[in-house]
Amino acid sequence: MNRRLALPALLAALALVLAGCAGGAPADDGPVDLSEVTLQVGDQAGIQSALVEASGVLEGAPYTVEWAQFPAAAPLLEALRSEAIDVGIAGDAPTLTALSSTDRIKIVKATRAPAKGGLALLVPGDSPVQTVAELRGATVSPTTQGSISHYLLLRALEEAGVPSEEVEISFLQPVDAAAALNSGAIDAWATWDPYTAIAERESGARILRDAEGLGTGLTFLDANTAALDDPGKRAAMTDFTERYTRALQWAWENPEENARIFSELTGRPAEIAGLVAERALRETPPLDDALVAEVQEVADRYVDYGVLRNPVDVASAVDELGGPDGS
Prior knowledge:
Elements: H1 8-20, E1 38-44, H2 47-55, E2 64-70, H3 73-81, E3 87-91, H4 92-99, E4 105-112, E5 120-123, E6 139-141, H5 148-160, E7 168-169, H6 174-183, E8 188-191, H7 195-203, E9 206-210, E10 218-224, H8 225-229, H9 231-253, H10 255-266, H11 270-279, H12 289-304
Parallel strand pairs: 1-2, 1-3, 6-7, 6-8
Antiparallel strand pairs: 3-10, 4-10, 5-8, 5-9
Helix pairs in contact: 2-9, 2-10, 4-12, 10-11
């Protein structure tokens, strides 16, 4: 893959072009100087920042990127809403949960993971539970409320014909949930990678039900409206989304290198890093009408489940940077 860096003159031109095509950003203040822009990007458990660093796609970027790490999407989205970060990476369900209570967040980029094993409902390896239907009366943590694993749990229970009120749901942060599963304080845990991989490889946890047929596999780059309305921030985010797309493609083309660098950057054992890296491979579908309709279905289900505070109109929450073709 050609990753040669643009010359400084081309980077200067890029800054001018991006400023001139920054969507809804004001155009009467003249071109922005991207060298003065710092983009605050939220990540979860270091997965995407490790990918971006491994791929080298930010080399030569005319702006500065600062990463902020969060254990889950809920605190990331709260930081996004409060403008502590400009853009962040979160799954469809938590994004919808945030959108149900604020109009200060927009979806600017979609990615999809073909692999479904990274999001899963886990039980201890020696658990007698073999089917979701056997969770009646059990205590289950879907990690954080409104998360992708909360949605997975509710969908899995619905599929198995188990009313959610027949399961005791305990919301626990990932570290606490892992400890609770290992100690027997909870009977099952719905979570996502890297926590799924860690539980499988280090604790011998078993996947009871993954997200195949139940989840969309969608993750979004979400931005706050203040950053989108700022010409410099919007221009930097437009460029960042293009570079992030290149990083995702690099991961498909360099799986071993991706896993190795992910292990080095996060301190995860090679076996866990390889599994997480493999299941984290993502495609970049356009935010078109079909995808919006798919996400709207998730939103409507979440309303039916009583999780969302208010209905969400997904179409009105989309502001795809660079347009459907990413240009």
